[in-house]
Amino acid sequence: MCLTQNPNNRVPIPKPANYDPAYWELFRRYFAVATPQNLTFNELVFVWHLQNGKTDINNNGPISTDYINGAWEYPEANWTRRQEIIREHIEYTQAYFYFLRTDPAVPESLRAEVATWGLAKDEFVKTNNWPHQLYVREARRMIGAYVFIQKDRTEEIEKQDTVGLGSYNFDSHHTQRIPVGSITLDEGDLQAFYAMNPFQLPYSMLVPKPTECTNLIVPVCVSSSHVGYCSIRLEPQYMILGQSAGVAASFAIDAGKNVQDIDIPLLQRRLRKLGQYLTPGDIPS
Predict the structure, then answer these.
(1) Which of 73, 174, 269, 285 is the most exposed place for a label (fewest CB within 10 A)?
(2) DSSP per residue over the chain, as a string?
(3) Mind listing the pLDDT tens digit for each residue in 26-77?
């Protein structure tokens, strides 16, 4: 979301027509016991300040902008249902901000602060100032010749068929909210910032099992577990894998081979010639 506090460029975040006060009871109970009582907006959401008085807003914790449990159907839904899910995310976000700025359970100082924020009226003008698409971080992935998992990021980081380097940590938002007796549990949040050392990206996670397909290379929806994908799903690594996939595809075509059978050392030499780093030793000191 792109928000602003500039009154000359601010559009109020509307109250959704289907707003249900009862939906927010869990949040009321949170505010009843939250410390400190003078919570600020930046403690509920990440506010990244941009130019011209605008911001990039991101979720921060369980009482925030993530619509927990709201996206499970999206990967395999038809387009009609996906459009409904997109609308439900917008309505959740609208209701979240309406709740924060109007509900008596929210500390008065926080209500007043949230009321100063609105959508930037010169952003996303064709979609009523809301982002024009839903951010889908993770959905369906291939189960391929090799499945990249947690240990491939933390322990077994050297790969004979490396085609690039990654360096991001494990980062997952909450995946589901579950009532258990008298309490509510949120599962899935994972922020392992200790793991920032380079790790090698194997070619074998880009290709299918040879018994299923022999002419496909997948640089984004790679063969990985959820936790493994948390470290892969960054744009720089997508670009690295895309470059590697393109070169590998040309090798398969020129040699008349299946994508699983190309000459990996030859591919690695070509990638290095193009400036790609395949091991930590390739990085200039």
Answers:
(1) 285
(2) -EEE--GGGEEPPPPPTT--GGGGHHHHHHHHH-SSSS--HHHHEEEEE-GGGEEEEEE-SSSSS--TTSSTTGGG--HHHHHHHHHHHHHHHHHHHHHHHH-TTS-HHHHHHHTT-EEETTSSGGGTTS-SS-----------SS-B-HHHHHT----TTEEEEE---EEE---EEEEETTEEEEE--EEETT--S-EEEEGGGSS--TTT-SS---SSS-SB-HHHHHHH-SHHHHHHHHHHHHHHHHHHHHHT--GGGS-HHHHHHHHHHTT---SGGGS--
(3) 999 999 988 777 889 999 999 999 999 999 999 998 999 999 999 999 999 9
CB atoms within 10 A of CB 137: 11
pLDDT in tens, 124-174: 999 999 999 999 989 999 999 999 999 999 999 999 999 999 998 888 999
Residue 30: closest CA among 147, 110, 115, 94: 110
> Per-residue pLDDT averaged across 181-203, rounded?
87
Q: Of 11, 109, 93, 2, which Cα lies nearest the Cα of 49?
A: 2
Structure-derived torsion over alpha carbons of residues 34, 35, 40, 41, reported in degrees to the nearest 10: -30
- In terms of Cα–Cα distance, which of 256, 267, 251 is closest to 161? 267
Q: Which residues contact 129 (CB under 8 A, 6 or more apart)?
A: 2, 11, 119, 120, 121, 123
- pTM for the model stands at 0.89
Residue 284 one-letter amino acid: P
